[in-house]
Task: structure prediction
Amino acid sequence: MSWHVLGAGSLGGLWAARLARAGVPVQLILRDASRLAAYRRAGGLTLVEQGQARHYPVPGQTAADSAPIQRLLLACKAYDAESAIAALKPRLAPGAELILLQNGLGSQDAVAAQVPNARCIFASSTEGAFRDGAAPEGEWRVVFAGQGHTWLGDPLDNTPASWLDELERSGIPHQWSPDILSRLWRKLALNCAINPLTVLYDCRNGGLREHPTEVATLCAELGELLATCGQPAAAQDLHAEVQRVIQATAANYSSMHQDVARGRRSEIAYLLGYACAAAQRHGLVLAHLEALHARLRGHLSARGLPSH
Ligand code: NAP
Result:
């Protein structure tokens, strides 16, 4: 059975290349005919691992293709997920499975609501990859920058997916997770405590060591939010982990900082935006988190970037 991977970007390319080299049938879905033509001109994907580039001629198509889709890896940004799935809906086979790779929360439910007959598997990944736009193959060249792990789970049905052995064969480190929502909430909280401040202070993660009180206050509010949203496990030792992450990744720029620095849209709506909306829904007043959200939105708007 063929995999379809929507989004020939960083994570989509990383997954498609590894599946293809293990002999698993895979098709990439490009945004439109002109992106497909550009992809075909490059002749496929290039994946760079430990400095070694290898080419993978993974076949491409657009949403307009007619072949039914049984298994779809949705590898676009959170803000593109809903419209991407709307275009593919007519092609989903009965009992289709979707793997949602988006960071943050909110996009998964929006996708699931559109496809009530498909199984939606949520993913949380610590793998790192980026597109090497400067190379001759341009954006079809993906650099595998950080080894990591992907947790997969279905909040509605804890039966592990039947294709985990294909990930095993493809060398994609993964684990079926019975509490994927807890993982996604925890990651969202870490993101909310670190990323917006790195944008506002224009610093690397380690720069937040100079703002310990602000970080501690945010962690306390995020902990309260997690507990109120029925995720007490995700709140455990949050502040200690945030401090550990700041220390361990001191030299790195957060993904949100990188997006803003490059003038790209951020996933704010699915991170801090989602957290603030959830607080509001529960009648919870989290003054510092709200203020951070307002400051960040102002910062993005001032730079001509979407603030939602
Ligand atoms: P990316 O490099 O920007 O790739 C996204 C891809 O989706 C782009 O190729 C884009 O096409 C494509 N796309 C968007 N809408 C589409 C549509 N309707 N049809 C077909 N293709 C479409 O993003 P990414 O870094 O892989 O991130 C994907 C998700 O994974 C994000 O939520 C991110 O936060 C999460 N994540 C990423 C990493 C990482 O290291 N990269 C790690 C963990 C989690 P165009 O090129 O035409 O715009």
The mean pLDDT is 97.
